[in-house]
C-alpha cells in the first residue's frame, strides 16, 4: 500500500508549480497573443517550455522534505528566468549578446547588456523535449557538421543552421573547452552574420603570467563591446555584481561542507544544476544569490536534524563530466532504486577563491581566473594534474564511494584519459563506472540502456541491494 505524502510535501509541490504557471501565463499575457504566435513561429523551441510541468514532476515529485523544497525552489528559479529571458530576446535586441557558457556574463551585466547563454538551449531542450534536440542534431548533420563533434555544440550549430537562434548584436566566446566547442562559434558567427570576439585562454592557465595576459584579453573584450554594442562599462556596478558573486560562493561553500556528512543533506540537482544555473547563467544577480542561500538553508535543516536527502543513502557518487542531459531525472530514479546519491560533479567542483573587488584590475584579474578555469575547461586544459588532482581531492573530501566517469561519446578529450583513470582507481580501490551515453541524443544509448549500466554496476561491483526488493 502506498504511504500518503505528508501535507507539507504536497503543499510545496503545488505552491511552486502554481507560481511557475502564473509566471508563464503572466509573461504570455504581457506579450499578447499575436506576438506570442509570431515569436513561437520564429523560435519553435519556445514550445518546449510546455514540457516544464513534466520535468518539474520528475525532479520534485519523487523527493521529500527539505530536499523536495530545494528542487522546487531551483526549478522555480530556472523557469522564472526562462520566461523572462525569452522576452529579452524580443524586447531589446540591440542589447542582446550571445555568450558561450565558458564566458560568464558578469561583464555584460555591468555594461547594461542582456546575455543569452548560447548553450542554455543545448541543456534545456534535451531536458524538456529530447526529440526536438535530436531534430536539431539532424539539421547539423545534414548541413555537413562532422557527426563526431560533441552533441552540445553540434546541437547549437543545428539550431543556427535551422535559423532558429536569436540574432544578437554580438557574440563572445573563447578557445575553451574543446576543439568542437571552439569551432562551433565560427559557424554561429557566419550563420548569424554578427561580429564575434574570441577570448584566448592560455594552455597553462593557473600561472601568474596567464592571469596578467588574460586581464589584457578582458580589457580588449570591454573595448570591443563598447564599439559593437550600446553597452558602456560601469566598474562600480561590476564591483556590486562581484560582491554578490562572492556571497554566492560563500553560501555554496557552506552547502558543500554539509555534503561531507553521511547521509548527505542534499544531492543531485540541488547541487549540480543549482551551481550551473547560479554561476553560469545568473552569476552575481540577486535572484541567484537568494537561490543559493535558500538551498544552503534547506541543507542545514536536514543537516541539523541529521537527516539525509535520500530515505536510504547506500552509495555516494562523484560524476566526472557531463551528465546525460536528456535523462536528467536519472538521479531521482537512481536514488529510489539503489539509494545512490550524486554528491558532486566536475562541472560544479572547483577550488577558486573569491573576487577581490578593491580595484578595476583586481576584479578583471580574478574574474579572468574564474573564466579560464571554467566548467569542463579547468579539467581538459593544461597538464594532466589539473584533471586528476581535483578529482581525487573531491573523492576524499566528500567521502565518495564510487566514481561515475562520463563516457559521453563526443567528449573525446576526456575519453583519452580513461586508461590512466582506470589504473589510478584500481590503485586506490575506488569503484569506477564508465557510463556510456551521448549527452543530448537518446538514440545513441537510451534510458533503458543507461539504467541497465547502473543496475549492473550497483549489483555486481557495489554489491548493494535494490531498494524495495
Ligand atoms: S562535453 Fe566535452 S566535448 Fe562536449 S563541449 Fe564539453 S568538453 Fe567539449
What does this structure look like?
There is one protein chain. It is built from 20 helices and 8 strands. The chain has 469 residues and is α/β, with parallel strands linked by helices. The chain has one domain (7-460). α7 packs across α8 (151-161). The longest helix has 27 residues, at 65-91. The protein is globular and about 65 Å long. The protein starts with 6 loop residues before the first helix and ends in a 9-residue tail after the last helix. The structure holds iron/sulfur cluster (SF4). Iron/sulfur cluster is lined by residues 150, 152-153, 177-178, 180-181, 322, 376, 380, 408, 410-411.
Q: Please report the total strand number as a whole number.
A: 8
User: What is the first-to-last residue Cα distance?
Assistant: 15 Å
Low-confidence stretches: none
Question: Roughly what is the average pLDDT, rounded to an integer?
Answer: 93
SSE pattern: HHHHEHEHHHEHEHHHHEHEHHHEHHEH
Number of discrete domains: 1
How much beta, percentage-wise?
5-15%
Structural class estimated from helices and strands: alpha/beta
* Overall morphology: globular
Topology, element by element:
Blueprint: H1 7-31, H2 33-42, H3 52-60, H4 65-91, E1 96-99, H5 106-110, E2 114-117, H6 119-128, H7 130-142, H8 151-161, E3 170-174, H9 179-192, E4 196-199, H10 208-228, H11 235-259, H12 272-281, H13 286-304, E5 315-320, H14 330-338, E6 340-345, H15 360-372, H16 377-380, H17 385-397, E7 402-408, H18 412-415, H19 418-428, E8 432-437, H20 447-460
Parallel strand pairs: 1-2, 1-3, 3-4, 5-6, 5-7, 7-8
Bound molecules: iron/sulfur cluster (SF4).
